[in-house]
Amino acid sequence: MRIARFTTGDSPRYGILEDGSTDLVVLKGDPLFMPVATTGERVALDDVRLLSPVIPRSKVVGVGRNYAEHAAEMGSDVPDEPILFLKPNTSVTGPDDPIVVPGYAQEVDHEAELAVVVSRMAKNVSAEQALDHVFGYTVANDVTARAAQRSDTTWTRGKAFDTSCPTGPFLALDLDVSDVAVRAWVDGELRQDGRTSQMVRGVPELVAYVSTIFTLLPGDIILTGTPAGVGPVRPGQRVEVEVEGIGRFGNNVVKR
């Protein structure tokens, strides 16, 4: 099952996209916080604007260097423990919304990622319990101001600026993400083409580890790392990201 958060010009709503359908079955309320129930209304996918599937009420947790080849291209080894960083919920933006390069940067890097959406509070959960706390999965682009990330003591300016976390286009609830493709394109040219089976630490281990540090709350997002092939995108270019089984979306890069 895939769920969309969308608007037709009014308040955001949620809908189910059934396999093979071009219509959304409209839901009552937010399925993250109430049982999935339909209103009986259907709207054409072509008639809606898709939004980020979830806006975290608390946080986005990023995981660095979780693909060995990406760590190597960054000139680093695979860390003994996951490297974590935070993005605020103001970094989250939707599919087709612009990525705004911050004033202190000339370009940003794309990082296509599988994103985990938390369903219920988790603290010190085991890897065996972890998936019981996962609502579903979406696609994210962990947009990074690389020069700031490298020059600063912390990664805040590099990772946490507004629009640095586009997500979409859908939220997949019942997907086996142990071996799915993760890809990125810039102006139609394939730049990243990895698989989640290449992750150093899989979803259960990551959720368990993160829960030992932060209390995870419903709607929190965990970015699971990016495969090799990251690189710059500049104002005027378009970057697209995809996770197999969830969907593909793109954002134009702008400078304001």
UniProtKB/TrEMBL annotation:
GO molecular function, one term: acetylpyruvate hydrolase activity
Name of the molecule in the record: 2-keto-4-pentenoate hydratase/2-oxohepta-3-ene-1,7-dioic acid hydratase (Catechol pathway)
Residue ranges constituting the Rv2993c-like N-terminal domain according to the UniProt record: 1-53
Residue ranges of coiled coil: none
UniProt keyword list: Metal-binding
Fumarylacetoacetase-like C-terminal domain: residues covered: 59-254
Organism: Georgenia satyanarayanai
Domain of life: Bacteria
Pfam families: FAA_hydrolase, Rv2993c-like_N
Alphabetical list of InterPro entries matching this protein: Fumarylacetoacetase-like_C, Fumarylacetoacetase_C_sf, Rv2993c-like_N
Keyword Metal-binding: yes
One GO process term, biological-process aspect: carboxylic acid metabolic process
Organism ancestry: Bacteria, Bacillati, Actinomycetota, Actinomycetes, Micrococcales
Protein's UniProt keywords contain Signal: no
